Amino acid sequence: MDDTSANKSKKWKPLHCLQLQLAGLPTNLKQNPQSIKFVAASTDVPILEMARAVISDIKESERGVSTFDAKRGEKVTVIHCIAVCVCDFNMMAEATNHMGANTKKFCPRCYADKETCISKGMVRQSEDTRRILNHLSINNSRELRQAHGLKPSENPFWDIIDPHRDIPVGILHWLYLGLGKHILKACMLELSEPKQEQLDVLIESH
Predict the structure, then answer these.
(1) Domain limits at 198?
(2) When you count CB atoms within 10 A of the terminal residue's CB, does the N or C end of the chain come out lower?
């Protein structure tokens, strides 16, 4: 699941894309274009609306699909499910009802905030998120949204996976803008006061 640019200019216009791949493929075949199945793409349809149709088909086929195994030469019933959902930071935020990198609780996986962004926060639990989203559907409180970094919206992923758990972390996709200043701040806090003064002298000397 991804949102790529549909414009040649700098103006952002996302092209939402959905693709599928068999989870059991050998590693050397995963990057093979023939192993990636295109499902849908649109610049106008929201990504969760596109995902809803796909997830509906997957749920319907969980009861089993009758087909023929050419290698064994016999009829078989195929039962499948979603193992993981691969996406970047923005798409994971959509899949978890998260408000994105600009909110104080900026991480869709834990409760890290911008004051302590280098440290991992309490891990988000599916049950807790569902409960908070249920409260927000009744009373869309700004304070509650900001406290948890969540937004109420119809999300089909909760019916088929645990979005907090079943979306792997792609480190390069999680480096949001301004990370350097947070790393510098974290390093400075680890230094004793004499070491900070010594560093100031070294910087000024150059």
Answers:
(1) 181-206
(2) C
